[in-house]
Amino acid sequence: MAVSGSKDFEPNVAEYVEEAFERCGLEFRTGYDALTARRSLNFLFADWANRGLNRWTIQQVSQTVASGISEYPVGTITATVGSSSSLSVGETITGGTSAVTASVITKPTSTTITLTVPSGTFTSGENITGGTSGATTTISSSPSLTDTQATVDVLSGVVRRSGADASIARISRDDYLSIATKSTTGRPTQFYVDRLITPVIKIWPNPENSTDILIYDRLVRIDDADTSIDTVQVPFRFYPCLAAGLAYYISLKRAPDRVQVLKGLYEEEFIRAAEEDRDKASLNLVPTYTFVSAVS
User: Fold this and answer.
1) pLDDT bracket for residue 52 (50, 70, 90)
2) Which residues contact residue 176 at a Cβ distance below 8 angstroms, ignoring those fewer than 6 apart?
3) CB atoms < 10 A from the CB of 215, how many?
4) pTM value?
5) d(CA 116, CA 11)
6) What number of other Cβ atoms are within 10 A of residue 234's Cβ?
7) Which DSSP string corresponds to 75-141?
């Protein structure tokens, strides 16, 4: 007998829902069944984020720093403007109508700038003025915060200077608060992640130039299950865990008599998937030799 020769099995949302309903002893029939199941699926993704199971959504971000700016969005906030040429990197821009402020981090093109998290929402078509240069231009639309708000957490980071990377250590909120002089400038050696709705990364010391590159790995959200024909952003090895988790979530609403069984199966599948989805690196243990010199 011949094998199929295919390795492309990838259930869509509707197929996961059908599988979950069958495990609950139910039939998937109505539009509301699909709606409530997709909602449960998105809640399941949030649970996975809390458990740290987004490793396949790790993204590496490279952000050129700006001299004197210590706080950066965890991700990229880009604004399209009439002209970026007269604006200065590191300066504060202010909306003429909205009075919203933000700082210019970089100028990727002649009509785009990347920003720190704005203090509010820019108004489409309003004039913005640079606080240092005095230059004025228009902003085409309020910059999107979606990329930054999709961040779950930051794993690690380095600062690159002249092609050489130096690790920077993550510190806690208390440690960052305890830094006596936050305006100190130099090559950044520490960072703190403020996990707001729009997360920011605070580095210290403040960058002393506008050429160093902050590079960090971040976890981002799994794409939402918006429609029944969507495929799901999970690798093959997590299919059983996803089906079991969705069945458990649906049972809470539709099959309470099966909750305990389905919960146990989900936790078992979760543990199996979590143990597989880890870094696999060699561990080398080197003994420490202590020499005691003779006392004469």
Assistant:
1) confident
2) 190, 192, 202, 204
3) 16
4) 0.88
5) 39
6) 22
7) S--EEEBS--TTS-TT-EEEETTT--EEEEEEEEETTEEEESPPSS-PPTT-EEEETTT--EEEBSS
